[in-house]
Amino acid sequence: MIQMVDLKTQYARIKDEIDREMQEVFDSCIFIGGPKVNAFRENLEQYLDVKHVIPCANGTDALQIAMMALGLKPGDEVIVPAFTYVATAEVIGLLGLTPVMTDVDPGTMNITAAHIEAAITPRTKAIVPVHLFGQSADMAPIMALAEKHNLFVIEDNAQAIGASYVVGWDTPDQPRLKKTGTIGHFGCTSFFPSKNLGCYGDGGALMTNDDALAAKARMIANHGQSKMYYHDEIGVNSRLDAMQAVILNAKLKNLPLYNAARNDAAKYYDRVFSQIPQLKIPAREPNSTHVFHQYTLQIVAPNPTAVRDELKAYLQEQGISCMIYYPVPLYKQPAYAHYWKGGELPTTEALCASVFSLPMHSEMNEEILAKITGAVKAFFEKN
Hints:
single chain, 383 residues, alpha/beta, Aspartate Aminotransferase, domain 2, Aspartate Aminotransferase, domain 1, seven-stranded mixed beta sheet, three-stranded antiparallel beta sheet, 40% helix
């Protein structure tokens, strides 16, 4: 079976380093925090060119800690895309805040400044742009809008670590780039195993260039204590363990190569699928690079969901995995429906009915790609 992600082959390439470093953790018996976590934090700060990285237990915690550090209060509204994974809105509900869900761009599938502006009310306090599937939302107009309305911006960067966004131009030929997750007041990411930079369990991190916000987030993540047994804030217990830091450090060195390999696979997919009229290949945000956490196509047909279901079943028969991210808008999920007062969002509805994702990882080779694309082509040729 061709899996969505091949972690086994990836591990084999870095096995010696991981095994050696892991043994050092076992020998030291420093399992929470310590030199391995500090080394990873410093290396990630350098890679992202950001002042502060605050490691934590998972990406969902990172979002929650960011909102707590920004002082958001029950009843405050936070704008999120309706087409995203539930974690983006989950922490908003957990904190007693109100998620305000908006439509997205039909090409990039990301939230836009225009969608955000239409959703702003006097109760709006923050925006959570999600850099979906591996590329940045168009952040310049979002940041300008946030400044105009005095709003916080928390980037959900769980799917786009390593992507860069054009924040300006030094010369007509030389763009000035910033890594996603370092543009807003906070960036948040997940190190879930399937991510472009993933560990072998759960892990996450916050990123910020603000010293005061970093200090507060670091304190909140560690039971709200500024020093041992002195608690200045109500906090949480959310820390990265040393074993996960070892894995992440080894993978971070290879992240540019991993993301380049994903782009090569995406180009192969593009060449084949752009020739199939029933498929719409992923659009690219002009101001962003893409790291292809997912390669997500759209079915173009009168009844896309029926075609998608048939395609998924056919691919599974051929030993090829296929996933649907995401089949239901946030506002139609039972846990979030009571927040929604409006009608259906047309682009979100269309995407939920038509998108599907194919295997995408750093270990793709021509044999795997040929089998996947050949199976998809064969399906549409006979239908």
